[in-house]
Amino acid sequence: MALAASVTSLADEVNCPICQGTLREPVTIDCGHNFCHCCLTRYLEIPGPDPEEPPSCPLCKAPFRPGSFRPNWQLASVVENIKRLELASRLGSEEEDVCQEHGEKIYFFCEDDEMQLCVVCREAPEHRAHTVRFLEDAAGPYREQIQKCLECLRREREEIQGIQSRENQRTQVLLTQVATKKQKVISEFAHLSQFLEEQRNILLAQLESLDRDILKQQDEFDVLVTREICRFSTLIAELEEKNERPARELLTHIRSTLIKCETRRCRKTEAISPELGQRIRDVSQQALPLQREMKIFLEKFCFELDYEPAHISLDPQTSHPKLLLSEDHQQARFSYKWQNSPGNPQRFDQATCVLAHDGFTGGRHTWVVSVDLAHGGSCTLGVVSKDIRRKGELRLRPEEGVWAVRLTWGFISALSSFPTRLALEEQPRQVRVSIDYEVGWVIFVNAVTREPIYTFTASFTQKVYPFFGLWGRGSSFSLSS
């Protein structure tokens, strides 16, 4: 069997590219490829698109001269040897059907010893008590087993191919997400760099202004002090001169001289005003907004880097007739007046709910819902499975394919198997809903304070859609990413 396979492989190597058969009188052209002499002759008889151009090789399209091909005697010898090997292989395969011990043709198969037997072997004492059948009869059950194995193997191969296809798609999705996040990193840091540059310029401008004001006040102080020093020097000289005079002259206008001494205090003892000093201390306070902005940026950036913002819109085909949707399908408001909505299988007929137009079959996605319950209504937010019940009563719990929370006036509840009232520091007005399809998380967070609200753990097997419900006059919500 190994010899036959090797001979077949060799025979494939000496085939003519034109007739696909074994080379006959092989000839070689300029590019080195080999063809049958007769095949190449017929090929040259076919006129080309441009009679002036030389013919091209049928295999590699390289031009060659019609009179340049030459016989390849060495390859012709190889072809002859391969033909002899093929003949020997066929004779050997015929000999395999003959018993090596008795020279008789093999007809039987011993199932006990798993041996192929001729007529003489069949009558041997060691096989008389065994189960012996004709070759085709014995091969039948084994063919059935092989067929079953083939079916199982093909089925498993299809499953593996399906897994490969799914994982390849998932890989492409992840690569797309990475590319998107890469662009987001570049964009966000460009905005941050611009913001930091603006803040740096503002702070430097304030510091430069302080520097100028300090120097200005220092100059003013120096001028004033110089004048005061001159005034004091004049008083000192006048008093020294007065003190040297005789008593009669000393006492002349002595009061006015002493009064000048009483007003000798310096008019200004500080170079820098208290107001300017306060401005210098306030410079550090200018960095507080920058610190807050950086904190918000990092929290938002890290969250959005982990979850892809979902630009969702409401599907009017699913909306209950009591819900009024905005023209851009980004807002909904409850109304007791029924809308003239055509009936269809997708529309909710009892639960005042609406789904997003597009759903998710993988990945991490997030969106924000702003809720207004001015008149004491309620709003339900979350995700639902594709086959959620649209007609009749809708049970809002995970067992029915609903993972949601409900906001009412004054409190919020998680709609688990048994609704659970949640204790939060603040009633949220903006709720961020996030889904991690592969992990199976549905996360609710206060979009303003970042306070966690509730997290569902599920195992998603089909497409899921963002889900919204409203009840109560004037209750409404709007979407953002």
From TrEMBL:
Cross-referenced InterPro entries: B30.2/SPRY, B30.2/SPRY_sf, Butyrophylin_SPRY, ConA-like_dom_sf, PRY, SPRY_dom, TRIM/RBCC, TRIM10_RING-HC
Gene Ontology molecular functions: zinc ion binding
Span of domain B30.2/SPRY: 292-481
Domain RING-type: 16-61
Domain B box-type: 94-135
GO cellular component, one term: cytoplasm
Pfam family, one: SPRY
Annotated coiled-coil segments of the chain: 193-220
Subcellular location: Cytoplasm
PROSITE patterns: B302_SPRY (PS50188), ZF_BBOX (PS50119), ZF_RING_1 (PS00518), ZF_RING_2 (PS50089)
Gene3D superfamilies: 2.60.120.920, Classic Zinc Finger, Zinc/RING finger domain, C3HC4 (zinc finger)
Keywords of this entry: Coiled coil, Cytoplasm, Metal-binding, Zinc, Zinc-finger
BP-aspect Gene Ontology terms: innate immune response
Family: Belongs to the TRIM/RBCC family.
Annotated protein name in UniProt: Tripartite motif-containing protein 10
Organism: Vicugna pacos
